[in-house]
Design goal:
It contains 11 helices and 10 strands. The chain has helices at about 10-25, 30-35, 40-50, 65-80, 85-100, 105-115, 235-270, 280-310, 315-340, 350-360, 370-380; strands at about 120-125, 140-145, 145-155, 165-170, 185-190, 195-200, 210-220, 225, 270, 275.
């Protein structure tokens, strides 16, 4: 189906991305899944191909392109099941904080490396006892001369083992009232003394991603690494969530499409009771329904991508897309696994991995329950 949101230039870029993923990333996916992380050489190759920070300014080495180019990278990685190479987190969730709120010195120091792949970024937000309740974080950054002394623990940190630079959410004023007014954002180098990588967590799905614990033990962070102003961290986090949740929606729809496409191919080949599974009416109806719902999701997300590029406030719509597409992903993968029968439960079949990978989609970037709270409030209901 034609997708009017993408121009001819966009589609040429898509072909470049597909070639790179097919030739240089897909062969490494089994190793990434086995090791539970990607490798720095592949990140640098992605940088050389212009796949990192594509919408960053040209003065730092970016292409100055629009978010639709990022959406193409997100889609193609998700469709290829290359979840270990977590470019969307780096380019479209973490780096935008540096680009939007960093001063000229911070940008000159870090942005070129994030575009070349020499600097891999992550964000340290979630804590063991807080989940989505950011105002309750316990990590502190206490002023000490020209530094902050950072103490606390973070969990569920993507790029936790391979990352070089992290946006860390901490309280520079632990006594602030209300609590969120004491939150600030710091750029923390992984080589800083007191920065401690914890366990690489053993997850149900997304096994190629190095989701980890990270600890700060009297970690000294120069005050020049403060993003924006003290106490503005919560506001900055909220302002970037529209794109973060759109990133999740783009990837979810692409993953749904891959699960349906693979299942269509499987039922055409697999036989039961003397005929192809594809010849049973239940199979035909089920895949017709799923394919239609995936297409509805794609049209919805395409529209939101276009609106996001135009700078529109689409928090309500993006919150809806995040919960709807991720719930759809769980439904699609479950139904497709069922159509695979017993083989769907075998890890050698990708649909089993799809089913496991889908589970977290409704949890991160704000749980789907929180998405519904946001929508309700913006509708004037709470």
């Amino acid at each position: 189906m034609r997708r009017d949101v993408f121009s001819e230039e966009h589609e040429l870029f898509r072909e470049q991305v597909r070639r790179f993923i097919r030739e240089e990333v897909e062969p490494l996916v089994p190793k990434m899944n086995e090791n539970g992380m990607s490798d720095k050489a592949t990140w640098r190759r992605a940088g050389e191909e212009g796949l990192l920070g594509v919408n960053l300014p040209e003065e730092y080495g970016g292409a100055g392109a629009d978010f639709l180019y990022s959406a193409i990278v997100i889609e193609e990685l998700a469709y290829s099941r290359c979840h270990g190479l977590h470019i969307p987190l780096h380019s479209d969730i973490c780096v935008p904080y540096l680009n939007a709120y960093g001063n000229s010195d911070q940008k000159n120091r870090y942005l070129p490396g994030t575009i070349s792949g020499e600097i891999i970024m992550g964000i340290c937000m979630t804590e063991p006892g807080t989940g989505s309740d950011l105002a309750s974080i316990q990590t502190t950054a206490i002023s000490d001369g020209g530094d902050y002394i950072l103490n606390g623990s973070k969990t569920f940190i993507s790029n936790g083992q391979i990352g070089d630079l992290y946006v860390v959410v901490a309280k520079t004023n632990p006594d602030a009232s209300p609590p969120h007014q004491g939150i600030s954002l710091l750029l923390v180098d992984a080589n800083a003394k007191g920065f401690v990588r914890g366990r690489k967590l053993d997850k149900l799905g997304l096994v190629g991603q190095d989701t980890s614990e990270i600890f700060f033990e009297d970690c000294r962070v120069p005050k020049e690494n403060l993003l924006g102003s003290e106490g503005q961290g919560f506001k900055m986090l909220m302002s970037q969530l529209q794109q973060e949740r759109l990133v999740v929606g783009v990837g979810s729809v692409a993953s749904c499409r891959r699960a349906v496409d693979d299942t269509i191919n499987y039922v055409k080949e697999r036989k039961a009771f003397g005929k192809r599974i594809a010849d049973f009416q239940n199979t035909q109806f089920k895949l017709a329904e799923l394919s239609t719902e995936v297409e509805i999701g794609r049209v919805f997300v395409d529209k939101l991508c276009a609106s996001h590029v135009e700078g529109e406030d689409i928090v309500t719509e993006v919150s809806g897309a995040k919960y709807w597409t991720t719930d759809l992903q769980k439904k699609v993968t479950a139904e497709c696994l069922q159509l695979h029968g017993g083989y769907g439960f075998m890890k050698e079949y990708p649909i089993a991995m799809d089913y496991a990978d889908a589970a977290v989609q409704s949890i991160y970037a704000g749980t789907n329950e929180i998405m519904k709270v946001i929508i309700s409030r913006r509708l004037g209901l709470g």
